[in-house]
Automatic annotation (TrEMBL):
Domain DUF6287: 72-92, 218-249
Bias (Basic residues) ranges: 39-56
UniProt-listed PROSITE patterns: PROKAR_LIPOPROTEIN
The name this protein goes by in its record: Lipoprotein
Lineage start: Bacteria, Bacillati, Bacillota, Bacilli, Lactobacillales
Length: 348
């Protein structure tokens, strides 16, 4: 009996030990699951934070790129390739000067097209500048966020530079009455002729609609010196006395019995001398203008049949005493001997 009790006691103790072991095993498994779940939760949280940081970096980088793009108001690479489409809009003359003194405002114009810019008789076509002396290749250089286009061959009678100033790059030219750097894009055109400078500000980026027939071209001395008088055609008026010179598109050859040096002339509308009309003749380009003549090829006219006539483009002065409006193309009767301001005829 005692033995049976002992055996029962042993079995009871073994059962309790086994139950305790199973309970501990379940607790370990439960604890392991909890730790694993916690680790996974921390891992997911870490991944989310990393993802958020990554998104913020991408957004920040994107924002920087966007801001950088917005502050680039002139595409220098396009301009260097002769593409001026990004500069189209309205350009207004801000100031001009001869020498050191700037005069605010002005009436000159700058027209910008896809592949060209036109300022009176001067034109930039792709990578070439054309003035009254002909065509000149351009070279482009960038310094301090400013692009400068200059003549590749500076050994010329009249030199030029065209500078492009994006917004906020210079305090030399003001576009308003406030101090500080320019708040508008600027194009500054300089010529060595009388050291004349014009400053144009982009007052609108809206492309103006311009009818072809309203576009006026200036004097082309290179053509005129070769007896192509097309840029002279039109009405020229003297603002002092109201008289006019009307140049037609007709050209007259000098007759065989003519004793003048010129072989051709642009026919003027109006007076005739025994069937011979008055004409304008041309010569070589000297100091940025042409000393031509106005008169008739009629050989029997008493005295000299021609008077001097200076054909002079805008921004060129005949002399330091030239008191004509040198911001405009003009014909100066008498070659300036009787005064320039009173003898100047301006294209209408």
């Amino acid at each position: 009996m005692n033995r049976k009790k002992v055996m029962n006691l042993i079995f009871a103790i073994m059962a309790m030990v086994m139950l305790t072991a199973c309970k501990n095993q379940n607790q370990k498994q439960s604890s392991s699951k909890t730790v694993t779940t916690t680790r996974r939760s921390k891992s997911n949280s870490s991944k989310k934070k990393s993802s958020n940081r990554s998104k913020k970096v991408v957004q920040s980088s994107s924002s920087v790129k966007k801001n950088s793009s917005e502050t680039t108001t002139m595409n220098f690479e396009q301009i260097k390739q002769g593409d001026y489409s990004g500069l189209q809009g309205t350009w207004t003359e801000l100031a001009h000067k001869t020498g050191k003194t700037f005069v605010k405002g002005g009436t000159d114009t700058l027209s910008v097209f896809n592949e060209s810019m036109v300022n009176g008789s001067t034109k930039v076509q792709k990578q070439t500048l054309t003035d009254t002396d002909g065509e000149h290749a351009l070279v482009f250089k960038t310094k301090d966020n400013i692009l400068t286009a200059g003549l590749s061959d500076e050994n010329v009678a009249v030199n030029w530079t065209v500078k492009f100033y994006p917004k906020g790059t210079t305090s030399q030219y003001q576009t308003n009455d406030n101090v500080g750097k320019n708040s508008q894009n600027l194009i500054v055109i300089w010529t060595s002729n009388n050291s004349y400078t014009e400053v144009f500000a982009q007052t609108s980026t809206k492309v103006p609609v311009v009818k072809a027939k309203t576009v006026k071209t200036g004097l082309n001395l290179s053509q005129i010196s070769k007896n192509n008088f097309s840029s002279l055609v039109g009405t020229w008026k003297n603002n002092h006395d109201g008289k006019t010179i009307v140049v037609t598109n007709k050209i007259m050859n000098a007759p065989a019995d003519s004793n003048v040096a010129w072989s051709k002339g642009a026919v003027l509308s109006g007076a005739e001398h025994n069937g011979y009309p008055d004409v304008i003749t041309a010569g070589k380009i000297t100091n940025g203008y042409i000393q031509g003549g106005i008169g008739t090829f009629h050989a029997k006219v008493l005295g000299s049949s021609f008077d001097p006539l200076t054909i002079i483009p805008k921004n060129v002065k005949l002399s330091n005493s030239d008191d004509s409006d040198y911001t405009r193309d003009r014909l100066i009767l008498g070659g300036g001997q009787g005064g320039t301001g009173t003898q100047a005829y301006y294209k209408q």
